[in-house]
Structures are given as structure tokens and as C-alpha cells.
Task: structure prediction
Amino acid sequence: MDIQYSDRKIVVGEKYLTMLDQFVLDFIRILEPETPYVIVSGYVAILFGRSRGTEDVDILIPLLEQEAFFRLHDALVHGGFEFLNAEDANGLHDMLSKNMGIRIARAGQFIPNIELKFLKDDVDRIVLRDRIEVSLPDANVFISPIGIQIAYKLYLGSQKDIEDALYLWEIFKDDLDHAGLKCQMEIFGVRGDEYGIVV
Result:
């Protein structure tokens, strides 16, 4: 896989699109006309070739008023997706408004699924504002800034999360703003020295 990083865009060449990638891209094609979004957490590392399984893909969107969410709800249902939560559209919007995630999968399936959430704090708003465009064969997606992703994964602290952070560091360490990454790590109260993430 050929990965080229420049400013706020990453171009990925010669990538084989997995079934998970195709699931995400199909979802994004319906989501994007309705609202800005940003993909965060584990799928970011998987997108760049990290070999590990995941059952869900985390996506953040701005708070939508009911009418706008209902449009998105209908577009997803008509596009072959279903909501796994036992709620109608009103209930789903209420869950999102209470900072809860809702789950969406292809109709008749449970895995993989999307966990969709409204932005809840300043970090989420920065992640959306500073999102990175990733150019894939025949599609583009928007992901969390790599530096924030590394800092956040270290903050989560599980073995899987640390390995995600290390994977992204190894790929992008020569392209990242190290001073910016250090600042992001300070915000999350983490250090990367013991893992070889030295900034």
C-alpha cells in the first residue's frame, strides 16, 4: 500500500478494499450529503493496513435538529441500512442528544456496524474541524487528525489501543507535527516515550 501525506490530505494508492472498507464507503455515500462527519478510533488504523478485527466503526457528526436527522434516518433505511437500537427515529434522536451512540448495520446483519454519535465536547469539535481527507481508489473519506488519534489511543490505554497508536506513529512519524503531537498528548495527559513515540 502506497501512502502519501501532504498537509491535510492523505492519498492511499494500490489499496485493496476489504469488505469492511466497502461497508464504510457505502455508509459514507449516504451520510455525506446529509451532514459533515469524521471517522475516529480503531478503524483509522485499519484503514491504513493494520491487521486486526473490529465489530464497529466510530463516526462523529454535528448535532442535527430532528428534521435533519429524520432525513438522514430515511436515507439510510432506503439505502439498505437498519438501526440496531430498539427505538423509532424520535427515540434515536433523543439518544444521540443525550450523548449516547446509536448502532447502524446493513439490513439483516449485526456486524460490522457503525456507532454514530453527536459531537459532545471541544475535542470532538476540533477533530471534526481539523479532519483529514483520505483519498482511496474511487472514494474519499474524512478521518480524525493522526496526531489526535495517536494521543487518544494512548489515553485509552488498552493493549489494542496502544498498538493502534504505535501503528499510526510508525507510518506517519516523519510527516507529523511533533510539537503539535506533544501538545495533544499533554491535553490527554499521556506520554509515548515508553512505547517509542518520542516527540
In short: The chain has a mean pLDDT of 94.
